[in-house]
Write a structure and sequence with these properties.
The structure is a single chain. This protein is α+β, with helices and mostly antiparallel strands. 21% of the residues lie in helices and 40% in strands. It has three helices and seven strands, in the order E-E-E-E-H-E-E-E-H-H. Strands 1, 2, 3, 4, 5, 6 and 7 form a seven-stranded mixed β-sheet that branches. The longest helix is centred in the middle third of the chain and has 13 residues. The N and C termini lie far apart (40 Å).
Length: 154
């Protein structure tokens, strides 16, 4: 039986939220793609992660991921490719988090008890700031599948 088939598995969903980076440098080759990733700071855990959260009963994972992005960041999100599912133990229980790449739409951040800060960072800086190594792999997955201007992207 896989963790996903287990009744005790905590199901959650989230997004690696990105936006085009502001154009501040002169044209030419750059060390990182022209995008920024949104990371959320959760004061309860004092960590930096991608926006995510538990699914409500009967909620579809993608709908839950988009709801969590809006709740935690204040931004609407346009979903893209599904990214790898992350599985780990949380408080002794198996947890499964499905992720999607998502482009940030309109919105504005407002601090809450759950998320008190967000940061928009280039991919390398985001990878460094993320608290959990498992979240860093999602940055790599986003860059491998969803680079702006890549074939199939608009």
């Amino acid at each position: 039986m896989s963790p996903a088939d287990d009744d005790t598995t905590v199901r959650a969903a989230g997004c690696v939220l990105w936006r085009p980076a502001p154009s501040t440098a002169s044209p030419g080759p750059t060390a990182s793609p022209g995008l920024e990733l949104c990371l959320v700071h959760r004061p309860k855990y004092d960590d930096w992660s991608h926006p995510k959260g538990k699914l409500k009963p009967g909620e579809a994972p993608l709908a839950g991921a988009l709801r969590e992005v809006a709740e935690e960041t204040g931004y609407a999100a346009e979903p893209g490719a599904e990214l790898p599912t992350v599985r780990y133990l949380a408080n002794g229980r198996p947890k499964e988090v499905r992720y999607w790449a998502a482009t940030a739409g309109t919105g504005a951040f407002a601090p809450s008890d759950e998320v008190d800060r967000i940061l928009w960072l280039p991919p390398e800086a985001a990878r460094t700031r993320l608290t959990q190594p498992r979240d860093r792999a999602l940055v790599d997955a986003l860059l491998a599948t969803c680079l702006p201007g890549a074939p199939g992207e608009t």
